[in-house]
């Protein structure tokens, strides 16, 4: 299995919540409608269908979140292939118990 699949690091939602004080870069890959209903404060909405156009800083660690952890895992894998340092958030927003913000920012 070595060399074929590079594993994607992951954290659970409690670990991400503890990391918030460091102001991590969080990509929320859910639809704009899902994002508006409630998202992690500071998360940037980059919907799954637009992720190919994402042009962020490659030296910054990216935490990728979706609703359940499935879309974010796919996105994290894709971004890792492009040279980004990525961390998948297991359980996604369905497991998030921290503060959420509604709206578009």
From TrEMBL:
- UniProt KW Chaperone keyword: no
Enumerate the InterPro entries for this protein.
GlpE_sulfurtransferase, Rhodanese-like_dom, Rhodanese-like_dom_sf, Thiosulphate_STrfase_CS
Q: Which organism is it from?
A: Alkalibacterium olivapovliticus
Q: Could you tell me which residue ranges the Rhodanese domain spans? A: 20-105
Instruction: Tell me a Gene Ontology molecular-function term this record carries.
Output: thiosulfate-cyanide sulfurtransferase activity
**Which named protein is this?**
Rhodanese-related sulfurtransferase
Instruction: Report keywords, A-Z.
Output: Transferase
Taxonomic lineage from the root: Bacteria, Bacillati, Bacillota, Bacilli, Lactobacillales
Query: What PANTHER family would the database entry show?
Result: FAD-DEPENDENT OXIDOREDUCTASE, SULFURTRANSFERASE YTWF-RELATED
Task: Look up keyword Repeat and say if it applies.
Answer: no
Q: Which domain of life is it from?
A: Bacteria
């Amino acid at each position: 299995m070595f060399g074929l699949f590079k594993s994607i690091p992951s954290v659970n939602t409690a670990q991400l919540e503890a990391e918030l004080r460091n102001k991590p870069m969080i990509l929320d890959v859910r639809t704009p409608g899902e994002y508006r209903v409630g998202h992690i404060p500071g998360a940037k909405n980059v919907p799954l269908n637009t992720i190919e156009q994402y042009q962020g800083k490659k030296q910054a660690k990216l935490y990728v979140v979706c609703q359940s952890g499935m879309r974010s895992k796919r996105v994290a894998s894709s971004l890792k292939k492009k040279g980004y340092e990525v961390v998948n958030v297991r359980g996604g927003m369905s497991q998030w118990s921290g503060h959420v913000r509604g709206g578009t920012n």
